[in-house]
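Cross-check.
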Amino acid sequence: MIPIRTCIFDLGNVLVFFSHERMVQNIVLASGASEQAVRQHLFEDGAQCAFETGKLTEKQFHTQFESYTGTSVQIDQLRLAVGDIFELNAPMIPLLEELQSAGVRLVLLSNTCVTHIEFVRNRWSFLDLFDDITTSWEVGALKPNPMIYESALTQAKCDATNCFYTDDIEDYVTQAVSMGIQAQVFRDAQTTRETLRSLGVPLAPAAE
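Predicted model, tokenized:
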């Protein structure tokens, strides 16, 4: 059995649940822009992708949004509208704490923007459990681009084969496996716990 030294976790729909629909509605309410304009700008014209790959700063995102929609909204209001889209996946937190206590290195690997990661950091404390946070906006590449996995593996500080990764998107897990990482599509905290136990990580069994 190859020992697991580092666990790499996705953020969205693994540690926190999120809703792009909620983001759209938040922005509509904050700015007065039409729902159609918000969707067009964020997703069809690629503003969200540009934001998540670091091609736009928060200030540039704000300026472009106002210009495209013809609206005026304070940057702090837009920041809150973009960021307030998360709900904590509470059963994952004890698992992170146990892994840290067991001496397993923790790395976050997420397609996300600065606004989202800072909102999560300010709302909950679980990011403090991580030894490193690897994000698409800092690396300049989105999963499943190998570049972002390579960045996370550098922070893992061990061989890919000694890493475990979980993500809710199968294509992202497939890419991880192709790079030698032991990986699993995320289902829930209990399944992840039992998988890690089967790989030899010293964790308590899942509660019945």
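The chain is about 50% helix and 15% strand. The domain at 6-17+89-198 is CATH 3.40.50.1000 (Rossmann fold). Passed to J.P. for a second look.
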